[in-house]
Design a protein that fits this description.
Helices cover 35% and strands 17% of the residues. The protein is α/β, with parallel strands linked by helices and 354 residues long. It folds into two domains: 2-63; 83-348, TIM Barrel, CATH 3.20.20.70. The strands form three sheets. An eight-stranded parallel β-barrel has the order 7-8-9-10-11-12-13-14, surrounded by six helices. A four-stranded antiparallel beta sheet has the order 2-3-1-4, covered by helices on one side. A two-stranded antiparallel sheet has the order 5-6. α6 crosses α7. The longest helix has 17 residues, at 316-332. It is elongated.
Length: 354
């Protein structure tokens, strides 16, 4: 339940009202959300209390939202969430493309990929510097050197960096180099970690847990939102099922379903969603058709020699083919890819998809 305070309240009136509520023993959060006026957020409140509070002259509107995910719900915020990442709009009519290697392996490798992305007019590069692997004996990433390499390549080719942060202690370090911080599947329900990400002023790309239901995914996003960070991107990356023919099962249903439940932008990761290179392009195109706001794909100059996830990484030529096809699918649903062909002024005025 969310109660909007009247915008004309002065500071003294607001403080008196807050003190009154605290004296009544009612638990709530006070937030200024999505650029709107102040709101009171209640996770647990009785109907009688709602009726009483809504009758007070300080309250403008009562918004009934799903109890588990109030701020992520489109009951509360009906317009799609859009925000700017260094001149690029997330969550607008244009579909964002994020691509790069699973792991940053060398300066030469990441520069070659950055150059290719730039040649296609794309604006986001991904790459892992810290790699949480199933086995402790597999390549764990280059750490700080990997962050420096991808930032240097991004700056050289006017790209924005998306990279995973795997632990609360690494948030300051990763934030220094990344434009968007990614939360991997394993950390989706690391709630203390999500709260810490809610305190920073950087967008967070939240991947769906490999065993997570849609409502659990939205509740994970709620941890970030309720801590104050409104720039959250959901990312479908496939879930574990009984089928062993693919690494994960890509849930295409997630895109229209999320759109019916939430205002948050939702991206697709068909690389992890399938784990098989030849399935990545078809699932990427299906995601665009189903309403995904962005696609994140793993690419590599030589996937057969990749230090991680080579089997699901596209060759650079395959990725170019994916982009050409994705443009056609996007056009068919009256959308476009986010690239240099769009006018910068138009980007800034980009209207969110309803």
């Amino acid at each position: 339940m969310i109660l909007k305070l009247k915008p004309e309240l002065n500071t003294q009136q607001r403080d008196l009202f807050i003190s009154f509520l605290q004296g009544q023993g009612i638990d709530f959060l006070l937030r200024e959300i999505y650029g709107m006026h102040l709101c009171l957020i209640f996770s647990d409140i009785e109907n009688a209390q709602i009726v009483y509070l809504s009758s007070l002259p300080f309250i403008e509107e009562v918004v009934d939202t799903p109890k588990e995910y109030l701020l992520a719900s489109n009951t509360w915020k009906k317009s799609s969430t859009c925000f700017d990442v260094e001149g690029q709009i997330i969550g607008g009519k244009e579909i964002n493309i994020i691509a790069g290697p699973c792991s940053v392996e060398s300066e030469e490798q990441i520069f070659k990929i950055a150059e290719h992305l730039h040649s296609l007019g794309l604006k986001f590069i991904r790459g892992g510097a810290y790699k949480p692997r199933t086995s402790p004996y597999r390549f764990q990433g280059l750490g700080i050197d990997g962050l420096k390499y991808i930032r240097k390549a991004a700056d050289a080719y006017d790209l924005r960096v998306v990279t995973e942060v795997i632990d609360s202690s690494l948030i300051p370090e990763v934030s220094e180099y990344a434009d968007i911080l990614q939360v991997g599947s394993r950390n989706m329900q690391n709630y203390y970690f999500l709260k810490q990400l809610g305190k920073i002023n950087k967008p967070v790309l939240l991947k769906r847990g490999m065993y997570a239901r849609i409502d659990e995914w939205l509740m994970a996003a709620e941890y970030i939102l309720s801590a104050g960070n409104e720039k959250v991107i959901l990312c479908e990356r496939g879930i574990r099922t009984f089928d062993t023919s693919v690494r994960n099962t890509m849930d295409i249903t997630a895109f229209p379903l999320i759109k019916s439940l939430s205002h948050l932008p939702v991206f697709s990761d068909p690389s992890h969603g399938t784990g098989i290179r030849n399935l990545v392009t078809p699932l990427a195109l299906a995601s665009v058709a189903a309403g995904a706001d962005g696609i994140m794909v793993e690419i590599h100059p030589d996937p057969d020699k990749a230090l991680s996830d080579g089997m699901q990484s596209l060759y650079l030529e395959q990725f170019t083919d994916l982009i050409n096809k994705a443009r056609q699918v996007a056009a068919a649903i009256n959308r476009s890819l986010d690239n240099d062909s769009a006018n910068d002024k138009q980007k800034k005025q980009n209207i969110c998809v309803e």
